[in-house]
Design goal:
elongated, four-stranded antiparallel beta sheet, three-stranded mixed beta sheet
Amino acid sequence: MLIRTKRQSGFSLIEIAVVLVILTILLAVVAVPLATQVNQRRISETKLALDNAQKALLGFVASNGRLPCPATDGTGATVNSLGDEAFASGSSAADGICAKFVGFFPAVALGVNPVDAEGFMVDGWGIKQNRLRYAVWGSTSIPDYPFTKTNGLQNRMNDFTPSTKKLIFVCQAAPTGAPLASPNVNTTTNICGSAVKLTDKSPAVIFSLGSNAATGGTGVDELHNVNQDFVFVSHDPTPAGSAPGEFDDIVTWISLNTLFDRMLQAGKLP
């Protein structure tokens, strides 16, 4: 007599394992382009934020005849200015002495969004470490802090006519040698050295620390952008393991000619 056995329904462990492997591969294939798309969107949002910040600075100049001081976040013996510009103790726009000349973008003073819970403007990544950074030239090699003092440039126009006069540098690679004291730039030397010099006459720089802001970049070029001097680095992104190390900072600046042109249009210069 033949005994028929009932075939068990369902999947074997081997079949389930094969399906899981296939799903893992498919998810990996989809996730990489998706992560790239998200990162590109954040980069685009950051560039838009930097563009809006730059326009806001020029609007502030047209209204006030000066650039704002950077905001401070309470670190490095500063108070938390909550996104407003921060002057040194006892100072104001009357003398133009900032608490820090390299700090954060003063979004509250300029009425720019988006900002975080403390009033700091953020880039496309939107976290505390991704607050937009801002530097305004304030070296005493030209007296009276003319860029941040009310009507300071009206009295110091002749100080910017020599072709050798330098302001903030932006280089395509980090200069070698000892770091500069802050805030100071040698007024005759090409600080960029052998690196390509993008500008040496910028009164103000705005920048984002990019996607690795939370962990902190370790490449020499990224480290140079946070060392509190008046020399910055800007170039295309490079991955970790490349010669200069990882770099994803996004840097923009205002030229001296653009600043003067806006002030002339607004009647803030003679």
